[in-house]
Design brief:
The protein has 392 residues and is an alpha/beta fold. The protein contains nine helices and eight strands. The protein has a single domain (40-48, 77-145, 154-391), classed as Rossmann fold (3-Layer(aba) Sandwich), CATH 3.40.50. It starts with a helix and ends with a helix. The model is unreliable at 1-24 (pLDDT under 50).
C-alpha cells in the first residue's frame, strides 16, 4: 500500500473517530494519547433484504414525474447495514479471524464506536489489536432503515391506525432499567458491591436496581449522546435473522460479539448456521445466555461460547437454567463459559460461575469508564479459547 494511502486512511479515521475541524468545539474531549489508527480499507455494504413494490396509497412520487405512482416503485426491506474496518496489519496474517459487533434492541452500531465522553469504543479497541472489525445496524433501524409506507397510509386515511407496526424506542428510563444509576438520569448511586440486580425479570420478586457507578458522569452533550444512540425500531417481516445471516455470509466465519438481544440473535444463528461462526460471545444476552433454556443444542456446540454479565443480570431467575444450558454444551464436547463481572456471595448457584471481581458495570458496559478492561477480558478469552485452539 502506498504511503499516501496510509496517510489517507489515517486521516479518514481521524475524522471518523473524532478530530474536530478548525473552529468547532473539540471532540473527542477525552485525549487518550494513542497513536493513529492505520487502515488498509474502510467501507460499508448492505446485506440481505428483499426488493418489493411500495404499498403507499393515495399519493404519488415527488419530483418532475408526477404521474409515477408509488405502487410502481421498488424499495428494499429487511436489509442489514454493515460498516467495516480492515487494519493495515493483521494480528495473525491471513489466519486472522474477523470480529463482528452486533447491538442490542433499539440500539445501533454507534455503541461500539465512541463512548459518550469521547473515548474510543470497542470497534477501535479490536482494530488496534489487528482484527478486521464489522459493525452491524440490524434491519429496521439506524442506517439499515425501513419502509414508511404503513405509517403514511394511516396518515393519508387509507389504512386504519392499528394496521401500522408499533415503533419501539428506549428513553431515559433505560438509565435505571440497565442499572447505570437512579432516575433522574444521569446520576450515580452509592457504591454497593453487595448489590445484585434483577431488573424486573423475576415475576415473583420486586426489581432490584443496583445503581452502578461506572457509566461516565455525563455533561449535557454526553447525555445527548447517550440518548441519541437509542433509535426507533420497527418490526421486520421475517425477523432480523435473515439480514444478519446475509451479512455473515459476506464476512465469512467470525467471532460474533452480540449485545443484549443481539447476543441471543447471534446464538440462534450460531445454532442453525455454525459455519458462519468461529466463536459466539454474548454481552448480557437477552435471555442471560446465548440460547434460550429449552432450545435444542445443535451447531452451537461446535464453537467456543462466552456470555459476560454485570450487575444488571446476575440476579435474574433464569441464571440457573442458562448455566444448565452451558453445562450441556460442555458435556457435548463444546466450550461454554458464563462469566460474572462482580464477585458473588457464595451459594450453590453462584459457586458454579467464574467471577472477574469487577463491580458496577451496567448493561451498556461498552460505554462504562472501564470499557477497555471489559474488552480486555473478551480479548483474553478469544486468545485462549479461539485463537490458541485454532492454531492446534
Amino acid at each position: 500500500m502506498k504511503v499516501s494511502n496510509y496517510i489517507g486512511a489515517a486521516l479518514s479515521l481521524a475524522i471518523l473517530f473524532g478530530a474536530a475541524p478548525v473552529g468547532a468545539a473539540p471532540f473527542p474531549p477525552a485525549d487518550q494519547k494513542r497513536p493513529p489508527l492505520v487502515l488498509k480499507t474502510h467501507g460499508v455494504f448492505w446485506a440481505g433484504g428483499k426488493i418489493v413494490k411500495r404499498t403507499q396509497e393515495g399519493t404519488f412520487a415527488a419530483g418532475d414525474r408526477k404521474n409515477l405512482s408509488y405502487a410502481d416503485q421498488d424499495v428494499l426491506v429487511g436489509q442489514a447495514y454493515v460498516e467495516y474496518f480492515i487494519p493495515a496489519r493483521l494480528r495473525r496474517g491471513k489466519n486472522t479471524i474477523p470480529v463482528v459487533l452486533m447491538p442490542g434492541g433499539t440500539l445501533i452500531g454507534a455503541h461500539f464506536h465512541t463512548t459518550p465522553d469521547g473515548r474510543e469504543g470497542w470497534a477501535p479497541y479490536f482494530l488496534r489489536r489487528g482484527f478486521p472489525v464489522y459493525v452491524i445496524d440490524p434491519p429496521g433501524r439506524g442506517r439499515a432503515g425501513f419502509s414508511p409506507d404503513a405509517f403514511n397510509n394511516v396518515r393519508a386515511g387509507k389504512a386504519p391506525p392499528d394496521s401500522q407496526p408499533q415503533i419501539s424506542v428506549w428513553d431515559s428510563s433505560g438509565w435505571l432499567e440497565w442499572n447505570a444509576g437512579p432516575l433522574p438520569a444521569p446520576s450515580h448511586g452509592p457504591h454497593d458491591p453487595s448489590c445484585i440486580g434483577n431488573d424486573a425479570r423475576d415475576p415473583n420478586a420486586p426489581p432490584v436496581y443496583c445503581n452502578g457507578d461506572l457509566m461516565p458522569a455525563l455533561d449535557p452533550e454526553g447525555y445527548k449522546h447517550w440518548l441519541a444512540a437509542n433509535v426507533p425500531e420497527v418490526p421486520v417481516a421475517g425477523g432480523l435473522d435473515p439480514g444478519v445471516a446475509a451479512a455473515l455470509e459476506k464476512i465469512g466465519p467470525a467471532i460474533f460479539i452480540g449485545h443484549s438481544a443481539g447476543g441471543t440473535l447471534g446464538g440462534r444463528l450460531a445454532n442453525e448456521r455454525p459455519e458462519l461462526f468461529r466463536a459466539m460471545i454474548g454481552i448480557e444476552p437477552q435471555g442471560t445466555c446465548n440460547l434460550p433454556p429449552n432450545a435444542p443444542l445443535k451447531g452451537i456446540v461446535k464453537m467456543p461460547n462466552l456470555s459476560i454479565h454485570g450487575i444488571n443480570q446476575v440476579g435474574r431467575p433464569d441464571t440457573g437454567p442458562c448455566l444448565d444450558v452451558y453445562a450441556k454444551i460442555n458435556a457435548g464436547g463444546g466450550d461454554a463459559t458464563w462469566l460474572s463481572l462482580p464477585k458473588l456471595p457464595s451459594s450453590p448457584l453462584f459457586d458454579r460461575i467464574p467471577q472477574a471481581g469487577v463491580w458496577g458495570n451496567d448493561h451498556i458496559m461498552m460505554w462504562d469508564t472501564n470499557s477497555d478492561e471489559i474488552a480486555g477480558l473478551l480479548l483474553k478469552w478469544i486468545e485462549t479459547h479461539v485463537e490458541k485452539k485454532k492454531a492446534r
